[in-house]
Write a structure and sequence with these properties.
- With 189 residues, the protein is an alpha+beta fold.
- The protein has one domain.
- Helix content is 18%, strand content 46%.
- Strands 1, 2, 3, 4, 5, 6, 7, 8, 9, 10 and 11 form an eleven-stranded antiparallel β-sheet that branches.
- The radius of gyration is 18 Å and the shape is globular.
Length: 189
Protein backbone atom coordinates (compact mmCIF):
# COMPACT_ATOMS: atom_id res chain seq x y z
CA UNK A 1 0.00 0.00 0.00
CA UNK A 2 2.80 2.44 0.84
CA UNK A 3 4.34 1.63 -2.57
CA UNK A 4 1.19 2.83 -4.39
CA UNK A 5 1.19 5.98 -2.28
CA UNK A 6 4.80 6.67 -3.25
CA UNK A 7 4.01 6.05 -6.93
CA UNK A 8 1.16 8.56 -6.72
CA UNK A 9 3.44 11.12 -5.06
CA UNK A 10 6.13 10.60 -7.73
CA UNK A 11 3.54 10.95 -10.51
CA UNK A 12 2.16 14.15 -8.95
CA UNK A 13 5.69 15.52 -8.57
CA UNK A 14 6.48 14.70 -12.22
CA UNK A 15 3.29 16.48 -13.37
CA UNK A 16 4.09 19.53 -11.25
CA UNK A 17 7.66 19.72 -12.59
CA UNK A 18 6.49 19.44 -16.22
CA UNK A 19 3.90 22.20 -15.71
CA UNK A 20 6.55 24.40 -14.08
CA UNK A 21 8.96 23.87 -17.00
CA UNK A 22 6.23 24.63 -19.55
CA UNK A 23 5.09 27.76 -17.70
CA UNK A 24 8.68 28.94 -17.22
CA UNK A 25 9.43 28.57 -20.95
CA UNK A 26 6.26 30.47 -21.92
CA UNK A 27 7.04 33.23 -19.42
CA UNK A 28 10.63 33.48 -20.66
CA UNK A 29 9.47 33.99 -24.27
CA UNK A 30 6.97 36.65 -23.23
CA UNK A 31 9.48 38.45 -20.98
CA UNK A 32 12.12 38.39 -23.69
CA UNK A 33 9.65 39.87 -26.16
CA UNK A 34 8.79 42.71 -23.80
CA UNK A 35 12.38 43.63 -22.89
CA UNK A 36 12.84 45.63 -26.05
CA UNK A 37 10.97 48.91 -26.68
CA UNK A 38 10.74 49.78 -30.39
CA UNK A 39 9.22 48.28 -33.50
CA UNK A 40 9.91 47.97 -37.18
CA UNK A 41 7.08 48.38 -39.62
CA UNK A 42 6.71 49.44 -43.22
CA UNK A 43 3.49 50.45 -44.90
CA UNK A 44 2.93 47.80 -47.57
CA UNK A 45 1.97 44.80 -45.39
CA UNK A 46 3.57 42.33 -47.80
CA UNK A 47 1.93 39.84 -50.07
CA UNK A 48 -1.64 38.69 -49.75
CA UNK A 49 -1.86 35.38 -47.91
CA UNK A 50 -2.75 32.15 -49.66
CA UNK A 51 -3.92 30.57 -46.40
CA UNK A 52 -7.50 29.42 -46.11
CA UNK A 53 -9.68 30.66 -43.25
CA UNK A 54 -8.60 29.41 -39.83
CA UNK A 55 -5.18 28.16 -40.96
CA UNK A 56 -1.48 28.75 -40.41
CA UNK A 57 0.87 26.84 -42.70
CA UNK A 58 4.53 26.90 -43.71
CA UNK A 59 7.44 24.82 -44.90
CA UNK A 60 9.94 23.71 -42.24
CA UNK A 61 13.26 22.86 -43.87
CA UNK A 62 11.25 22.21 -47.05
CA UNK A 63 8.64 19.91 -45.44
CA UNK A 64 5.01 21.03 -45.28
CA UNK A 65 3.59 22.06 -41.91
CA UNK A 66 -0.05 22.80 -41.20
CA UNK A 67 -1.39 23.67 -37.76
CA UNK A 68 -4.55 21.60 -38.03
CA UNK A 69 -5.27 20.99 -34.33
CA UNK A 70 -5.00 24.57 -33.07
CA UNK A 71 -4.81 27.70 -35.22
CA UNK A 72 -5.76 31.02 -33.63
CA UNK A 73 -4.77 34.58 -32.93
CA UNK A 74 -5.07 36.73 -29.82
CA UNK A 75 -4.79 40.47 -29.37
CA UNK A 76 -3.95 42.02 -26.01
CA UNK A 77 -3.56 45.72 -25.28
CA UNK A 78 -1.99 46.74 -21.97
CA UNK A 79 -0.57 50.12 -21.08
CA UNK A 80 -1.38 51.37 -24.58
CA UNK A 81 0.78 48.67 -26.23
CA UNK A 82 -0.83 45.98 -28.40
CA UNK A 83 0.60 42.48 -28.76
CA UNK A 84 -0.63 40.06 -31.42
CA UNK A 85 -0.03 36.34 -30.87
CA UNK A 86 -0.37 33.89 -33.77
CA UNK A 87 -0.20 30.22 -32.87
CA UNK A 88 -0.83 26.82 -34.33
CA UNK A 89 -0.04 23.18 -33.62
CA UNK A 90 -0.55 19.84 -35.29
CA UNK A 91 -1.39 16.36 -33.99
CA UNK A 92 2.30 15.33 -33.84
CA UNK A 93 3.28 18.09 -31.39
CA UNK A 94 4.82 20.50 -33.90
CA UNK A 95 3.90 24.14 -33.33
CA UNK A 96 4.58 27.67 -34.56
CA UNK A 97 4.20 30.75 -32.36
CA UNK A 98 4.66 34.34 -33.53
CA UNK A 99 4.55 37.38 -31.23
CA UNK A 100 4.19 40.86 -32.73
CA UNK A 101 4.85 43.37 -29.97
CA UNK A 102 3.85 47.05 -30.26
CA UNK A 103 1.56 46.13 -33.17
CA UNK A 104 0.34 49.24 -34.91
CA UNK A 105 -1.42 48.03 -38.02
CA UNK A 106 -0.88 46.45 -41.41
CA UNK A 107 2.82 46.25 -42.23
CA UNK A 108 5.98 44.22 -41.94
CA UNK A 109 7.60 43.41 -38.60
CA UNK A 110 11.15 42.02 -38.54
CA UNK A 111 12.63 39.21 -36.47
CA UNK A 112 15.96 40.87 -35.75
CA UNK A 113 18.36 41.67 -32.95
CA UNK A 114 18.88 45.06 -34.63
CA UNK A 115 15.40 46.34 -33.70
CA UNK A 116 14.66 47.74 -30.28
CA UNK A 117 11.53 45.61 -29.79
CA UNK A 118 11.41 41.85 -29.99
CA UNK A 119 9.05 40.35 -32.49
CA UNK A 120 9.57 36.66 -31.78
CA UNK A 121 8.95 33.52 -33.82
CA UNK A 122 9.29 29.99 -32.45
CA UNK A 123 9.03 26.57 -34.05
CA UNK A 124 8.65 23.68 -31.58
CA UNK A 125 8.76 19.91 -31.88
CA UNK A 126 7.25 18.49 -28.71
CA UNK A 127 8.37 15.09 -27.50
CA UNK A 128 5.16 13.74 -26.02
CA UNK A 129 6.76 10.63 -24.50
CA UNK A 130 9.61 12.67 -22.96
CA UNK A 131 8.61 16.35 -22.58
CA UNK A 132 12.06 17.34 -21.33
CA UNK A 133 13.40 16.37 -24.78
CA UNK A 134 11.13 18.91 -26.52
CA UNK A 135 13.08 21.20 -28.87
CA UNK A 136 12.37 24.79 -29.88
CA UNK A 137 14.00 26.99 -32.51
CA UNK A 138 13.69 30.74 -31.92
CA UNK A 139 14.15 33.87 -34.04
CA UNK A 140 15.82 36.19 -33.38
CA UNK A 141 18.66 34.72 -31.34
CA UNK A 142 21.82 36.21 -29.84
CA UNK A 143 23.81 37.99 -32.55
CA UNK A 144 21.46 36.90 -35.33
CA UNK A 145 20.72 40.24 -36.98
CA UNK A 146 17.75 40.05 -39.40
CA UNK A 147 16.48 36.45 -39.64
CA UNK A 148 12.92 36.84 -40.93
CA UNK A 149 9.72 38.82 -40.88
CA UNK A 150 5.97 38.66 -40.52
CA UNK A 151 3.94 40.74 -42.96
CA UNK A 152 0.37 41.54 -41.89
CA UNK A 153 -1.67 42.21 -45.02
CA UNK A 154 -5.09 42.57 -43.39
CA UNK A 155 -6.44 42.96 -39.85
CA UNK A 156 -10.04 43.36 -38.77
CA UNK A 157 -11.71 43.16 -35.37
CA UNK A 158 -12.24 39.42 -35.89
CA UNK A 159 -9.34 38.15 -38.05
CA UNK A 160 -5.76 38.71 -39.21
CA UNK A 161 -4.02 37.62 -42.44
CA UNK A 162 -0.47 37.66 -43.73
CA UNK A 163 2.76 35.85 -44.48
CA UNK A 164 5.97 35.05 -42.59
CA UNK A 165 9.39 33.43 -42.77
CA UNK A 166 12.26 33.00 -40.33
CA UNK A 167 15.41 31.07 -39.52
CA UNK A 168 15.43 29.88 -35.92
CA UNK A 169 18.23 28.56 -33.75
CA UNK A 170 17.67 25.74 -31.29
CA UNK A 171 17.34 27.19 -27.79
CA UNK A 172 19.61 24.66 -26.11
CA UNK A 173 21.78 23.70 -29.06
CA UNK A 174 23.25 24.80 -32.34
CA UNK A 175 20.91 23.37 -34.97
CA UNK A 176 18.86 25.64 -37.24
CA UNK A 177 15.38 25.38 -38.76
CA UNK A 178 14.40 27.43 -41.81
CA UNK A 179 10.70 28.30 -42.01
CA UNK A 180 9.55 29.49 -45.46
CA UNK A 181 6.29 30.09 -47.33
CA UNK A 182 4.50 30.85 -44.06
CA UNK A 183 0.92 32.06 -44.40
CA UNK A 184 -1.87 32.69 -41.92
CA UNK A 185 -5.55 33.57 -41.98
CA UNK A 186 -6.59 33.37 -38.34
CA UNK A 187 -9.60 34.37 -36.28
CA UNK A 188 -9.10 36.20 -33.00
CA UNK A 189 -10.11 34.25 -29.88
Amino acid sequence: MWFIGHLCLINNLKTTIMKTIKNTLCLAVICLSLVFTGCNKNDDGGATTSAGPGTLSAKVDGASYSGDVVALATEITAGGVTTIRLQSSDATGKAILILINAFNGVGTYEFSTATSIAHVATYTEANISNPTATKSWVAPYSGSGLVGQVAVSEKTATAIKGTFNFSGKEQNGTTMKVITEGAFNLNFQ
